[in-house]
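Technical appendix A lists one of the benchmark inputs used to test multi-chain prediction within the project. The record comprises two sequence entries:
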Amino acid sequence: MATTTATITLSSGDLTGDALSLSTTSTLTKAGTVTGLTQFTGVGRKTRATTAQLTLFDGDAYANGSHKVYLRNTSTVATEFFTIEINSEQMGKLYAGDWAFFPWEANADTNDIKIAASVSTAMTIEYALFIDE
Amino acid sequence: MGTVRASLSISSSDVMTTDINLSVGAGLSADSGILSRAKVVKTAVDANALEVYTVNDKSESAYLYLKNLETEKENYVYIYNDTDSDGLVAKIGGLEFCFIPVAVDKGYRVYGTRVDSMVEFAVFGLDSSAAGPFNQS
C-alpha cells in the first residue's frame, strides 16, 4: 500500500489580533477506508489559448471513489483566473499563483471537473490526480 | 488588509518509482478569515444546514479551507452550492481537508453522513459590503 500525505499550512500575522498558524496533514486514502491511493497521474500542465471550457477530468473515466485533485494557476498576472466547475456547479475562480486541493467523488458521468481561462492569451493550469480505483 | 500564506505539500516515496515532493504556496490578500469550529446539523440539503460561505461576503476571490474532524473515514461531510442547484462541490472523508476557491456570489453549506460531526473551516478574501457576518449558528 502506498502512503501519500498532503499537508496544508495557513498562516498570517496580520489578519486579526490572534495570529493564524495552522498546519494539518492528511494521508490520502480510498473512500471510506485507510487504504492508501496507489494510482497517480503525475503532475501535468495544460496551456489554454482560449476562454472555452475544457473538461480536465471526466467523471465517466473514473470510478465512484475519493480521488484527490490538485490544481494551480501558474499565471503571474493577478487578474487572470480559471473558473473551476464541478458537477455542473461553479466551484470558484482560481486566481494567478493560487492553488486548490480537494477530494473528488466522480459519482456520475456528469461529475466532470471543467476549467475555463479568463483570457485567451495562453494561461496554464497545473494539475494532478490521485486516483481511487 | 492582511495577508494569508497558504501552502500545500504533497509527498510520497512509494506511490511511484520516483519520489513525489510537490510543494506550492500562495499569498492571499484578505480582510478577514476567522477559523471556526462548528457542528454539522443536517444530513441532507437543507435551508438550515451549516453555512460556510455567505453569498457576496467577499469580493473578487475567496478561498475556503474545511477539515472534517470525524475520525471515521466513512463519516463524510458534503459541501454544496446553495445558490444554484444544490450540487456537490466536495465530499470530505474523516480527517480529510480541502482548500478550494468559492464563487463569491454563491452560498455554500455543509451536511454530513451524520449529525453532530465537527468541522473546522475558514474563508479568506477581501470583504464585500454586500453581506453581513457569517451565519455560524
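The mean pLDDT of chain B is 91. The longest strand of chain B covers residues 2-12. Comparable benchmark entries are summarised in Table A2.
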